[in-house]
Design brief:
Layout lengths: L1 E6 L2 H8 L2 H9 L3 E6 L12 E2 L9 E2 L1 H17 L6 E12 L2 H7 L4 E5 L8 H7 L2 E4 L9 H12 L32 E2 L2 E2 L9 H8 L1
Parallel strand pairs: 1-2, 1-6, 5-6, 5-7
Antiparallel strand pairs: 3-4, 8-9
Bound molecules: adenine.
The site of adenine has 11 residues, from β5.
């Protein structure tokens, strides 16, 4: 699975997604992550990407041309890599559909997700109309930009991609996958602050353990 992230902060995204399980998944080739700096596609000599909104109002908007140019460059790069898979283009926005596990599972079936991270007060509507297939929110609160939501999405989707987790079963055993929440878990030491590990877990009786966990 391939992720292309259009952002003003590619270094931040590269750094976070280069760590831990998602970093290892990139190294093993289970997923590919490419970041694209929208600013590189500005047509302005000062590399500006924002401008004041028509009709007045507070704050600045991200202008359409750099995003449009960046998007077309991503499509060209995919074509050059002979990448022909099914793709969605996602704009991270608090006005979007709130991400749930089921939605993450559907998105994990695509070959390519192109994520657009906004900043300032938003993005010129015309480029959104042209390129975006899905508007996704990670919750009913407002953040300063789309990078954290994009990384949350990529993390939740990647762990559903075969080969990303050590054991392909382990994504299915966890909270939400069966509409159940994960059970409490324990490791050594057997006693911590006078609290003992539930006896059934030490019994070696697999059926009783399964029932207890359920
Ligand atoms: N951008 C700002 N806030 C957001 C949110 N809650 N979800 C997705 N994108 C956002």
């Amino acid at each position: 699975m391939r992720f292309d992230i259009m952002t003003l902060f590619p270094e931040t995204v590269d750094y976070i997604l280069g760590q831990s399980i998602i970093g290892r998944a990139q190294k093993s080739g289970a997923i590919q992550v490419f970041t694209h700096n929208i600013r590189d596609y500005s047509e302005d000599k000062h590399r500006r990407v924002d401008d004041t909104p028509y009709g007045g109002g507070k704050g600045m908007l991200m202008a359409a041309p750099p995003i449009w140019n960046c998007y077309n460059a991503v499509l060209r790069m995919q074509a050059e890599a002979c990448f022909t898979g099914m793709r969605r283009v996602i704009y991270l926005s608090p006005a979007g559909r709130v991400l749930r596990q089921e939605h993450a599972r559907t998105l994990a079936t695509y070959d390519s997700l192109i994520l657009l991270c906004g900043h300032y007060e938003g993005i010129d509507e015309r480029v959104l109309e042209e390129i975006v297939t899905d508007y996704v929110s990670i919750g009913d609160y407002v953040l300063t930009g789309g990078e954290l939501p994009a990384m949350v999405m990529i993390d939740s989707i990647s762990r559903l991609v075969p080969g990303v987790l050590h054991n392909d079963d382990s994504a299915g055993d966890e909270s939400f996958e069966n509409g159940l929440l994960e059970y409490p878990q324990y490791t050594r030491p057997p006693v911590f602050l006078d609290k003992e590990v539930p006896e059934v877990l030490l019994s070696g009786h697999h059926e009783n353990i399964r029932k207890w966990r359920h």
